[in-house]
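Deliverable D4.2, example record:
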Amino acid sequence: MEHFRRLHHIGRALLITLKCITHHRISNYCNLHSTHFRSFVDHPNAGCSNGSVTMGTYLSSFDTQKRLKGILAQGIWVERNTHIHYLQFCTDLRALTEGKLVHAHLDARNVFDDISERNVVSWTVMIAGYVQNGNGEAALKLFCQMYREGIKPDQFSFSSILKAIGSFSGLEQAKQLHAQIVRTEFESNISVGNALITCYAKCGCLDDASQVFSKMDVRDVVSWSAIISGHAQHGHAEALQIFKQMQQAGVKPNELTLSSVLSASAGLAALFEGMQLHALVVANGFDLNIGVGNALVTMYAKCGKVEDAQQVFDNMTKHDLVSWTAIITAYAQQGHGEEAFRIFSDMQSSGIKPNDFTFASVLSSCASLGALEQGRQLHTYVIKTGFDVYVSASNALITMYAKGGSIEDAKYVFDKMPSRDTFSWNAMITGFAQHGCGDKSLQLFEQMQEASIKADGITFLGVLTACSHAGLVDEGWRLFDSMICSYCLVPRVEHYACMVDLFGRAGRLDDAEDFINKMPFPPNAVLWGALLGACRIHGNIELGRRAAESFLALEPQGAAAHILLANTYAAAGRWNDAANLRKLMKDKGLKKQTGRSWIEVNNKVHTFVVEDKSHPQTTKIYAMLQRLAHQMEEAGYMPDTNFVLHDVEEEQKEQSLYYHSEKLAIAFGLVSTPDGRCIRINKNLRVCGDCHTATKFISKITRREIIVRDANRFHHFKGGLCSCGDYW
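Output generated by the structure prediction step:
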């Protein structure tokens, strides 16, 4: 009786611990001393008794309660002796909630350690407690101790420890344990077999998972769900095929099965299969299940059907954090930033607190809109809630600041990160490239190599873009060659397009065409479009015509090639040829993308098109433009009518240039913000040459810094100069 009473106490203490972790996602660890924190996490003795002195040293250097909360929120558990440092620190800070969390864990281990005769049940309960609290390594250590003390594991012990190994993707340990399972004849146990499948899948070894599945004499719904989930997690189409086999075998799916196969459909953008699954979900009564509903929202979102995702979300009777994050991500990924913001506000009003993934999605919306001020407010919120040390949130902040025009703030976030992954480096390298800071981008690439972070295809896309924008042709060639020879990476079409752009911007059009013709695979429309754009810039009509013909052969209904070639003709004064192409576009029903520019003022985004008069402050905007036109002419500005691509009178050309969308946005910024404040403009197309020249004059006249983000890059205008050095 006493033994079972002790087991009850262990279970109760572990339940308290689990509830604490589940319901107290402790945060607010601002101003984290990243060196100390990272040193502990990376310390080889972290989690061991001989790491107690180290931990005590670090705790003594903590200067805020938020830092302790941060460590506990990360799920970092240590051995018994170390808890005295935690508890003393909690006492000093009067941190009751954190103290309870530490005490719950200490209580469970104390009760376990005080059992004089521990059997397999008591060991398994304690192991399961570590697993449930996210500490697989401690669970494995305890399992090994159990084995050394002569306690033979049962099917529950094996199932728990396999879950622990899967949590840290310990493939070598999984294989060793599998051999032990075979020796002890537990392989035929269905729960152990299911755990093996899940463990191998989480370790990325689907061949072994499939082999275990195929050898099972009896399979239940968990078995099928495990193998389907494994393939779905790795984006394999086999998940859909295995689900069909499951149906043919007469096994009825559960919510986990349906969620997994929906995840597979989402990863494959398999809309038809996803819609069939939706019908199956409704037919089997799982449409009210929150997990399945979340999977449906994600599936429709990744298939580009935001309206359907919204409908599923609206029909759900209950929403959790995953639900809200899924629908916010759906709108963010489709470029509907304002709607994503609205839903984020609704989520907060409903009492659901965001996590790092939610912040990443909302910050992505800020990035797409160029809504820097809203992004800054979110950054403050991220810090207050303690998520600024999470890599995913910090990566999103870097991207948001870079795309919002504040590369300095992006670098500040990057420098403050306690740890970085490949995405962190890629985001910063690409950010520098987009802002025309080619040298800084290449320097950071060297630092990335020194930090032993392996570069990938996105890394090279960033450095090649940096070379293109800076005119570093030889360096670009060297990097492209090293990508293949030194890094064993296969260049994608995007990398080849960067090289074509690199040659094209430098005026080496023949080299660009030769590069395309010598590619190892047939060029697509993107490559011919890059060459055609370069021909437009440098006025090479004959090569532009050839590039347009190749472009149109691949995309006969593509408006871009018609427009670029028509503009090339117009710039050369071949008005008849330009008019004929525009007539051809009209006959085909092709429409030019409308140029739009937008600016964020007082947390609201204001959008303009050419000669726009729909804004409430139109009178002030046009008055400002007239005043600027007079001041610019006095300063020596001459409208470049070569950028008016219609055969009209010269005076009419000059008038039309004054009312381009970016000039309207700049004028609105001048009348709506205090003197001296930086103006940030976003444009969906490449800024025209005349607007580029005019903005340089405006920056000097108004003594304002003006940052323009167009479809290709950023332009920082200050004192009459542009950061691109007129090389764009």
